[in-house]
Amino acid sequence: MRFAFLIAALACCTTALAGPNDTVRPHPPQKVHPDTYVIHGPQGVPSVKNQGFMNNPAWVVTADGVVVIDPGSSVQAGRMVVAQLKKTTNKPVTHVFNTHVHGDHWLGNQAVLEAWPGAVIIAHPEMIRRARDGADRFWLELMSTLTKGYTDGTRAVIPTVEATDGQAFRIGGKTFRIHASDDAHSKTDLMIEIVEDKILFTGDNVLNRQVMNLRDGTFKGVMKATRRAHDLDARLYVPGHGKTGDRRFVEEQKAWFDILMTEVRRMYDEGRSDFEMKPVIAEKLKAYRNWAEFDANLGPQISLAILEIEQE
């Protein structure tokens, strides 16, 4: 949970005053399907510049109401999402899915319940446990620090309904099927499939042209989740970060992991260290050089791959 670079930020940043009634600057949604909208947030880590908003909130309009997936990183981000959602439908939000424990995806729950107090919030059982055990406070403090107080006023509204692997929620004429894992990006992850529409919300198990932060997860678990997403052969994939698209970006992530793990294993068998591996692997992955967070996350991924090989 305690990302090294984020702890460093907590140690060296100072919090400035911000108004709890602020709202993140507007980000218009994209209609990716007749019933489905996505706000594609800027890629990168939370910052003053992006006001802490950098995920992909989405919503699905059903016959009975609206289902939201990951309403954002703060009450301020959530209020922006609510305002954009209300431009697309007059129906109330009935359910919210949180894909994992990282606060940039779920601290916007507060804003949803401000607007629709009866909404049911659903998440992985381990996410709920971790949030209750301190992850809520950690992420509130982290978001405040990285945005220099912009997200102050946010309360952690923890999900109350558990979702398990293979479970299907029938909501407003649509089937929301859960693909859960306990060893992938955060070890608290849900991917959510709309069966009738062949849409898969991948959370952060699959990103579009962004090198994944795996400090809370496992390399092999994410590779397994990526294959699972790929094999579902959805018509449309909505990642936690990056643009919505078809299966091609899932294939790109799968290729990244296959190349990296193959090269790490080969050089580990040769007795090379992680710092010797990095320039070789960076060259092998040069086609991905323009992906977001390449420099920040390549080295940690190599180190994690080595650790998992050593544990075999």
Topology:
Layout: H1 4-12, E1 30-33, E2 36-38, E3 58-61, E4 66-69, H2 75-86, E5 93-97, H3 109-115, E6 120-123, H4 125-146, E7 161-162, E8 168-171, E9 174-181, E10 189-194, E11 199-203, H5 219-232, E12 236-239, H6 248-269, H7 274-284, H8 294-310
Helix pairs in contact: 1-4, 2-3, 5-6, 6-7, 6-8, 7-8
Globally, the shape reads globular
pLDDT average, as an integer? 93
Which regions have little confidence, pLDDT < 50, spanning 5+ residues?
Answer: 1-18
- Give me the CATH architecture, please: 4-Layer Sandwich
Computed CA radius of gyration, to the nearest angstrom: 19 Å
**Helix segment count?**
8
Secondary structure: helix percent: 25-40%
The CATH first-level class comes to: Alpha Beta
Q: What is the CATH topology classification name?
A: Metallo-beta-lactamase, Chain A
Distance between the termini: 23 Å
Fourth-level CATH superfamily? Metallo-beta-lactamase domain
Q: Strands of the biggest beta sheet: in what spatial order?
A: 1-2-3-4-5-6-7
Q: Look at the helices and sheets and give the structural class.
A: alpha/beta
The tally of beta strands, per DSSP, is 12
Largest sheet data: 7 strands, mixed
Number of domains: 1
Approximate strand percentage? 15-25%
**What's the order of the H and E elements?**
HEEEEHEHEHEEEEEHEHHH
